[in-house]
Every structure is written in structure tokens, then in C-alpha cells.
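Can anyone check this?
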Amino acid sequence: MTVFFRASVMLLTLVGLPAAWIYYGPLPTGAQKVVNRFVDVARDALGWQQPIQAKQAWDQAKVAPRFSEAPVRDQGDEAVRFQYDAPKTESTIPASSPISLVSATLPSPEAKVSASDDLASQLEPHFSLLRKLGAADYSLAHWGTEGNLYRFHCSIPFGNEGLMSREFDAIDADPVAAVRQIVGEVTSWQNIKLDAGHSSTQWR
């Protein structure tokens, strides 16, 4: 009997009151208080206070969910912050050094001296041969309007008591080549002279 009474009260509370609300609208304030009191008594009698409260809390959360307001972001500040926080890339191209460029384009005096010594060591054997062939005077100098050529001049005396001389000249961009040309011409000329002397001796 008690169970039947509880079930009847629950059906009346859960079904009858919502139906009356739908068809007749909200109750007056006094009647609403009586109904609320009756519902509380029914809940206490049925022992469903905790489930009903949990269900009401779930319904409230379902009907009116709470949303936290998102913080407003200032696009201007974000753009400025992004601009200043951007990583700075360093250039990997090495800067040219004026000192290295000057040292690469202008030879040092030591380089000139070493080049002169190397040229002298190449020319000395040819000069020594010319002296053996009787060269009395020879000279090597720059030649041309721009000075990019070399002229080698050599004088070889001949005849009785060396009163006459034969002049040899060669011009070339390579000083060693100019000297070699004169050495070859002097050698050929000396050989011709020797052959002519032997021929005249045989005819006598």
C-alpha cells in the first residue's frame, strides 16, 4: 500500500503538474508555494531528494550551459609583437676585406724582387754563352708604346782587330724568347764564319 501511494504521488508530481502548467499556464504565487511545499513533502516521503537534485542540476547545465568569455585579442598588438619577435637571419656571405683586395691586385715589392731574380737566373746562361761567342755589348729593355714588349740588342765585333761589329736585335713579349733568338742568330753567324774560314784554307 505504501509503495502504491508513493507511485501515485510521483506520477502526480511528474506528470500532473507539467500537464497543468502546459494547459493552464503558471499558477498564482500562493498556489505555486503550496505546490512547491507539496513537492518537497513528496520528495522527503519518497527519499528521492538527491537524485532529483542531481537531475535538476543536469537539466540546468543542459538548458543553460555556461561559456567562459574568450579574451579579446588586439590584432594591432599581435602584429607589432610578431614583427618585433621575428627571428633575424644573419647573412652568410662574408664581407669583402679592402686589405685582401688591395693585396690581391697590387704586388708587393718582395714579389717584384723574386720575379726579377727568377728572370735573371733564366737569362744568365744565355748571357754567358754570348760572352763566349765574343759579345762585347748587350742590353734588354722594355719596348713599345705600352711597354709590354722586350727588345734585346747585342753587338759582336769581328774583322781585323775587331774594328767592325755585327748588330743583332730581337723584339718579343717574352724577354727570355728575345734573348734566345739572338743567341741562335749569333751562333748561326759564327758557324757560317767558321765554315767560310775552313773553305778558304782548303783552297789555298
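Reply from J.R.: I decoded it. The domain at 114-203 is CATH 3.30.160.100 (Double Stranded RNA Binding Domain).
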